[in-house]
Task: inverse folding
């Protein structure tokens, strides 16, 4: 079957006005155990709110009890403890202040706070409490702090504490600045590899020692895993963007698998990450650069029916982002999508916000190469045409796509740095 892309969009898209309109998407997800919900930026309100509404339905209607996000494990643990009623913060906003690493607005925002409040209420009424987990690799020092502090409190005479202190001592000369460690490891062959590898192996072999109702064993293991993989990541980032990218995404996959294994064969997880992580890399130009991602690996590791990926996009609007790495955020205008891009074709098909399900019936109609917009935490619309459109085979990259025609910037929490 052949058909112009414009006609294919008109024929197979369904309007999206309210959450109930997405019921056919829930039906298409079926019995999948891993649902990946993307975003085309880290600063668009609707991407967060629609993901949250979909996730609520997956929790209530499909038995999902794990939410994993593109954030640091120690910070997300504070949010999870709040949602599960395990102490700590008194409000969702307070819990989310734990996301203190730039770009803080990614998780310390009103949209996530609203979802976290809902999750806390849901957990008070459910026998199975849903957790909120960070799967990223950046928190090397924070995770080492967590490991040493926990082992000091629970097993001060144990060998794992000595291993943790030895690993921590190895990293201490670099003043908690990852770039210092990266540059040092580039010039000296001896890095902290053995220390963090030995620590992780020992903790895994003694995991029964650390079990309790608050997932202390999982928390300890993931923090040790972060230390091991972050060391690898920061060492690689001075040599190769592709290598460091792959290490980061492999870490996220490993963390997802550890979380699911911890919760047993019936575990179901929702993953919130950028489209560039959850959409299969093999259907983009990333593959030519030797890059893999979370979506690719999870598809390779699981049965097709167990994994479902949903991409997101917009035609125009506003977004929270920074003009340079590490500087305060601003509200930035997102111009109308570039002509003949995926987002432009969705706009020209008419009908406003909509979504598409890719199935055996129509997948070939959407598998041609087309530019697909991606906005990161650093964004300059003036250079969009040169770096923000990823060549993509849409129906091979995702199982479904949600298009919101005009979007607005998300709302960072007040304590988040702003211009």
Result:
């Amino acid at each position: 079957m052949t058909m112009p892309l414009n006609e294919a969009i008109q024929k197979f898209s369904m309007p999206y006005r309210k959450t109930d309109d997405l019921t056919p998407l829930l039906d298409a997800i079926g019995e999948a155990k891993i649902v990946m919900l993307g975003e085309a930026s880290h600063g668009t309100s609707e991407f967060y709110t629609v993901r949250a509404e979909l996730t609520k339905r997956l929790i209530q209607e499909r038995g999902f009890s794990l939410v994993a996000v593109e954030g640091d494990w120690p910070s997300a643990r504070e949010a999870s403890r709040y949602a599960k009623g395990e102490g700590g913060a008194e409000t969702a906003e307070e819990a989310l202040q734990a996301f203190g690493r730039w770009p803080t607005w990614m998780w310390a925002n009103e949209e996530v706070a609203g979802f976290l409040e809902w999750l806390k209420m849901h957990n008070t009424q459910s026998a199975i409490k849903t957790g909120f987990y960070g799967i990223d690799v950046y928190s090397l020092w924070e995770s080492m702090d967590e490991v040493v502090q926990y082992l000091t409190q629970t097993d001060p005479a144990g060998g794992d504490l000595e291993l943790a202190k030895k690993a921590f001592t190895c990293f201490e000369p670099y003043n908690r600045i990852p770039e210092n460690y990266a540059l040092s490891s580039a010039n000296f062959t001896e890095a902290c590899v053995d220390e963090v590898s030995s620590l992780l192996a020992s903790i895994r072999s003694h995991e029964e020692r650390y079990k309790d109702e608050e997932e202390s064993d999982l928390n300890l293991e993931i923090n040790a895993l972060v230390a091991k993989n972050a060391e690898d990541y920061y060492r690689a980032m001075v040599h190769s963007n592709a290598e460091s990218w792959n290490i980061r995404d492999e870490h996220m996959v490993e963390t997802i698998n550890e979380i699911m294994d911890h919760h047993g064969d019936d575990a179901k997880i929702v993953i919130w990450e950028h489209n560039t992580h959850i959409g299969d890399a093999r259907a983009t130009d990333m593959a030519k650069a030797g890059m893999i991602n979370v979506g690719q690996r999870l598809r390779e590791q699981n049965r097709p029916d167990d994994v479902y990926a949903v991409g997101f996009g917009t035609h125009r609007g506003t977004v929270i982002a920074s003009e340079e790495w590490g500087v305060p955020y601003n509200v930035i205008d997102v111009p109308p999508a570039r002509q003949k891009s995926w987002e432009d074709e969705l706009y020209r098909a008419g009908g406003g916000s909509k979504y598409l399900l890719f199935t055996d019936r129509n997948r070939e109609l959407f598998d041609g190469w087309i530019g697909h917009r991606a906005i990161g935490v650093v964004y300059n619309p003036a250079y969009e045409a040169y770096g923000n459109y990823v060549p993509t085979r849409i129906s091979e990259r995702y199982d479904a796509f949600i298009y919101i025609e005009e979007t607005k910037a998300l709302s960072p929490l007040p304590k988040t740095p702003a211009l």
User: Anything to note?
Assistant: The chain has a mean pLDDT of 90.
